[in-house]
Structure formats: C-alpha cells, structure tokens
Amino acid sequence: MKAMRKHAYRVLLAIGLIAFAATAGAVPAPFTITLESTSPYYEPAYASVSAGSAVVWVNPTASYHTIQHDGCEDGPVCAFNSGSVAPNGRYVLEHLPPGEYRYHCELHPIMRGVLIVTSPAVTTES
Questions:
Q1: How wide is the angle at C-alpha 72 spanned by C-alphas 97 and 40, nearest 5°?
Q2: What does the pLDDT profile of the chain (126 residues) look like in tens digits?
Q3: How many CB atoms sit inside 10 A of residue 118's CB?
Q4: What is d(CA 121, CA 123) in angstroms, rounded to the nearest whole number?
Q5: DSSP string, 78-97
Q6: Hey, which residues does 42 pair with through a beta bridge?
Q7: Domain-embedded: residue 45
Q8: How many domains does the chain have?
Q9: Which domain, by its residues, includes 66?
C-alpha cells in the first residue's frame, strides 16, 4: 500500500511539473481589433493594451483595408503601416512602445481608431 501511495505522489508531481512547464513560457493571446463595414469601423475603436502585448487586426469584410499610424502622414514618426489587408486577412503588430497611436484606413479615411499602449506594471518586492 505504501509503494502505491509513493507511485501516486510521483505521478501527481510529474503531472504538476508538466502543467507548470507548459504555462511558464506561455505568451498571452493577442488583443484583437475587428475591421467592420459600418461605424465604428474598428471594433473597438479605442483600445488599450500593455506594452509587449501583440495586437491583431482582422478583416472579415469583403473590402481591402489598411491600418496606418497617423504619424506616417503628418508626423515625424511612422509607428506602423499594414499595407493592404485583404478580405479575411489579418495584420499583427508586436512590441510597440508605450504611447497613444491614432490610426486610420488609407483607403477609407472615415475609418479611424486609437491604440493606447501602457507601460507594463512594475512590481516591487518587500
């Protein structure tokens, strides 16, 4: 009976270690923004993510669209420009530094959105 109990503990320990290893390096799911054919066009039109989070824009519409940072046209810095995103296509953006990023669709200027990238939370040890 003692040997069976030891074996059961070892099995449970192994399962726990495997589960921990599988989640220890897990990357959080990207934040998704959906392109729409009607207002507000980008859903959500105003989004906030932590620095280091990936953002993915998905285009389920029948039209081509772009996701272009407003700075590409009227600012000193162009933070991102997707180029054409085909119907059922997607655009993934990673590693954007903290800040406020207004963006639009070059093909449909009425389409506008705002992405806020916040600094990651700082933890301190006591």
A1: 80
A2: 666 555 444 544 445 444 444 444 556 689 999 999 898 899 999 999 999 899 999 999 999 999 999 999 877 889 999 999 999 999 999 989 999 999 999 999 999 999 999 997 665 665
A3: 13
A4: 6
A5: ---B---B-TTEEEEE--PP
A6: 35
A7: yes
A8: 1
A9: 31-118
